[in-house]
Amino acid sequence: MLLSGIRRLFKPERAMAPTAFYTHPACLEHDMGDGHPECPERLQAIEQMLRASGLGAHLARREAPSAQTSDLGLAHEAGYVANLSDFMAQVAASGKTRAVDPDTWVGPGSLEAALRAAGAAVAATDAVIDGEAANAFCAVRPPGHHATRRQAMGFCFFNNVAIAARHALDVRGLQRVAVVDFDVHHGNGTEDILAGDDRVLMVSFFQHPLYPYSGTENPAPNMVNVPIPPRTRGMEIRDVIETQWIPALERFKPQMVFVSAGFDAHRDDGLAQLGLVEADYEWITMRVMDIARRFADGRLVSCLEGGYNLSALARSVEAHLRVLSNQPLPLQSA
Ligand SMILES: [Zn+2]
Questions:
Q1: What are 270-315's pLDDT values in tens digits?
Q2: What angle do CA 327, 332, 334 make, to 5 degrees?
Q3: Contact 270, 37 (CB under 8 A)
Q4: Where are the domains of the chain?
Q5: pTM (2 decimals)?
Q6: Which of 1, 26, 188, 290 has its CA 20 to 30 A from that of 228?
Q7: pLDDT at 1
Q8: Rounded to the nearest whole angstrom, what is the distance from the C-alpha of residue 305 to the centroid of ligand 1?
Q9: Spatial distance between the Cα atoms of 136 and 123, rounded to a whole number of angstroms
Q10: Residue 264 C-alpha to ligand 1 middle, in angstroms?
Q11: First vs last C-alpha separation in the chain
Q12: Which residues are catalytic?
């Protein structure tokens, strides 16, 4: 009786499990051409930060497996998966880079990277549900949140977060999951896939107007979309989160939380004009972690989306990971 009470209080398995860090060397081999902002150096900047800060020693590093066709089919139409996979395989065989749209290019390493990125999200979901990890961050590329059921766009091919969310619901049997998208761009692909699925609540803010210019008209009832004008700063965005995201998440009571973690709302990012700084990403992560703790036993999987200023990206991911792994910055001595 006493022992079971103590067990319940401390939840030892999950409390002692580490934050998992999923990545794969193949994610560095996806190359959309010189000067493209969604570049392999993004992941290298994160790795460099993990070494320099010492944070890497506190994370459980995991090699991302490849997603299976059945995983991709959880979020995408079968014909799309087949056609895109064929196209990417042809590109891999030819050794030449080809465009899907003016922003989105397939190179010889893209298929393997895309499969590892989606596979990371699925494996992280399993590890967190099984209690092997307290929570998880997937340092992967290509990102996913612009990929719709049947279209690659906006640097995205397979929708890593939507696939993982559907995996939690359809394969692992969860009944309610939340998707939190703090990338500066509207996650139109995730919305396309999950709109109207009342097992999902998606909350997001995004700069508007900005690519992909969607999200403001007739979002589905399970979408909380907050368009934000350019040059808005962190304190105002925190207010939006507190007044619009948090009450919706509290009503929904998710059993697991997925995060589309884009860091391109940072004030130093060149692709948008919002004003977040590292402390804002720390705060957002704490608020989302609080929801996960209260309703989902801490279950949270975060996947990298955007973030194109390499230094700001690394610093913001550090802030995000320090909260996830409960490794606050050491106090500076005077
Ligand atoms: Zn973005």
A1: 999 999 999 999 999 999 999 999 999 999 999 999 999 999 999 9
A2: 165
A3: yes
A4: 14-324
A5: 0.95
A6: 290
A7: 45
A8: 6
A9: 10
A10: 6
A11: 48
A12: 146
